[in-house]
Amino acid sequence: MGQPPSAPEDDEVATGTLVVRASGASAARQALDAARGARSKADPERVQLLMRATLPRHLPPQGTTTTFGDCALHAQPGERQGMLLLTAATHKLSIDFSELRPLLFRQVPIDRGLQALFTTSAAHLLSVAETLDPHGAKSYLLGLADLVLRTALRSELDRADALATRRRAATEYIRDHLSDPALTAERIADALFISRRRLYQLFDDGEGVSGRIRALRVERAKELLADPALGVRAIGEISRQCGFANAAHFSRTFRKAVGQTPRDYRDQVLGGP
Known about the structure:
Order of helices and strands: EHEEEEEHHHHHHHH
Number of helices: 9
Keywords: DNA-binding, Transcription, Transcription regulation
Organism: Actinokineospora bangkokensis
Protein name: AraC family transcriptional regulator
InterPro entries: Homeodomain-like_sf (IPR009057), HTH_AraC (IPR018060), HTH_AraC-typ_CS (IPR018062), Tscrpt_reg_AraC-type_HTH (IPR020449)
Number of strands: 6
Strand content: 5-15%
Helix content: 40-55%
Domain HTH araC/xylS-type: 168-268
Number of domains: 2
């Protein structure tokens, strides 16, 4: 397996989460590609699974690493909880590395059952490592890595699908109530039977709930302004249809988003003066 695995930083893995990262010559490239949302052409040599755990007390304070062929298990004690790091050769796993992208280089929440299975199994193995057959221990760790990765991936995909469904529902509710200037995050959350905190999590892309409402109102305004049948409709009336408090607020918001006033935009699209 080469050099011992690098110890994770204290804040790299939160309690109740799993971090999956690449290890080897291509690890830095994998991390950069993941940050850009791009796909790397080369798979890394190894995959590492990191999780916090309660470790056996007899472990040395500097940590210990046990290697079984293509697998290595590193335990790093801490003040309250220690850290377990399981390293496995990528080509030995039954799951293709490309399938693991939803888990890579981030803290993935996992349920307590999976956390207990991983940490207890690894801690027990460390306690009896010297008495184990190396080939059997390697197969055991590979199987443990496969089980944890597959279970975490399935849970994460289910969670992402649920978030996407909720996000679509929230967006549709906003679209259906754009003309209401009193539309707020609280009303949207109540309509979807979720907390405001949960609603904010659905729109944690930097735009936020209020930003999404504003963007959809500008989008609706552009549609109305570009409709030839509405070419004589007053700007103030269009602003009310889009839920803006008044025409001045509408004009400022529209100009900031589009780069033109509503009137100039309509003249350009409809070929007016």
